[in-house]
Amino acid sequence: MAKVRAILIDDEVHFRKEISNLFEENEHIDVISTAQSGKIGIQKIAIEHPDVVLLDLDMPEMSGLQTIQSIREVDAHIPIIIFSERCARNTGQLLDAIAAGAADHVMKPMRNQWNSEREAFREQLALKITSLCLSLEEHVSAKQYKISQNEKVVPLRSVKKEEKSAGIDIVAIGVSTGGPNALAQIIPHLPANLGVPIVCVQHMPAGFTKILAERLNTSSQIRVVEGAEGMPLEPNTMYIAPGEYHMQVVRSGARYVLNVNQDPPENSCRPAVDPLFRSVAEHFGKSALGLVLTGMGSDGLLGCKALKQKHGTILVQDKDTSVVWGMPGYVFQHGLAEDALPLQEIAAELIRRVQKAASRNMAEHRDVEGKK
């Protein structure tokens, strides 16, 4: 992969200097230019054609949100990573930026914490830059993820028909980069009488997941809430894992409830998809449907393997509609997914599968009653 060329847009001269210094000797990232305003930044993007844009969300005159909207008018694909000191408390503003087209975000350290947090910030930002640009490069060149020659690949659609006879009792979703927009194109299209609970891990810090749940709840027919310890699973309700906590499904007497915990991160993530999917596989097995959406990294791969071993159904978002085809890509290339679907088709497919399972169960019930 060639050296990534980045343009930094931030109104604070101190921060522009610090970021430039952070990557001065980096072998993979080159901050080729900086700009003190969105207007100047857009002009430089048009001239210098960078691989990625680093953008402060809180700027005077032309805000970060307005800058994103203007960038997207001229370039629909260039990755935009946003950062802001205010992100920690103004989560709504961050979600607006993601909805407008930002690919990811990083918390900007407060100035008085810069010395103690600069290295962690640099590592996090560098990882997001390289991951996003690598994903875009692979998307354009249509390269495939490589699989170890020693690892057995399960053929697609290899599950036997008799193993698929169970109804769908739960839907589990794992998503990361690009997730809020993906969820916004799926969940509001589900009917109020869907009939099953949905459990979801979206990689986000504490505070963000609550706002995400509230926004989805406002726009959706089903109920959407942030998951909490001991919360019972109810049909027609979606539970989003709280930031900084893993979320799992456990049995409590005759019902299933949520367990949220701060066990060590998995795949450098908390919440992580793998613990949720493992718990769903354990308790629901072949009556579970797992869905892996856009996101970087491989979180969800091991969880999908556990679900596949229990004969559950797995679907993934396709490469063309994913912001980053990391999480769904790994699952698909390891032969675990039954299908890879465009984002705009996923809601209808979920409804079809859940309703088909419900209809089959009703028919089986009528057959049993008729034999009595």
Order of helices and strands: EHEHEHEHEHEHEHEEEEHEHEHEH
**Low-confidence residue ranges:** 140-165, 362-372
Domain tally: 2
Look at the structure and give the mean pLDDT: 87
CATH class of the largest domain: Alpha Beta
Rg calculated over all Cα atoms: 22 Å
What amount of the residues lies in strands? 15-25%
Structural class: alpha/beta
Give the tally of β-strands: 14
Number of helices: 11
The CATH superfamily of the largest domain is known as Methylesterase CheB, C-terminal domain
What characteristic shape results from the CA principal axes? elongated
Question: Can you describe this structure?
Answer:
This protein starts with a strand and ends with a helix. It has two domains: 4-141, Rossmann fold (3-Layer(aba) Sandwich); 161-364, Rossmann fold (3-Layer(aba) Sandwich), CATH 3.40.50. With 372 residues, the chain is α/β, with parallel strands linked by helices. Residues 140-165 and 362-372 have low confidence and may be disordered. The longest helix is centred in the last third of the chain and has 29 residues, at 343-371. Helix content is 39%, strand content 20%.
Keywords:
5-stranded parallel beta sheet; 2 domains; 14 strands; disordered C terminus; Rossmann fold; 372 residues; 11 helices; 39% helix; 7-stranded parallel beta sheet; alpha/beta
Brief account:
The chain is α/β, with parallel strands linked by helices and 372 residues long. The chain has helices spanning 13-22, 38-48, 64-74, 91-100, 114-141, 179-184, 208-219, 273-284, 301-309, 327-333, 343-371, and strands at residues 4-9, 29-35, 52-56, 80-84, 104-107, 170-175, 198-202, 223-226, 237-240, 246-252, 255-261, 288-292, 313-317, 339-341.
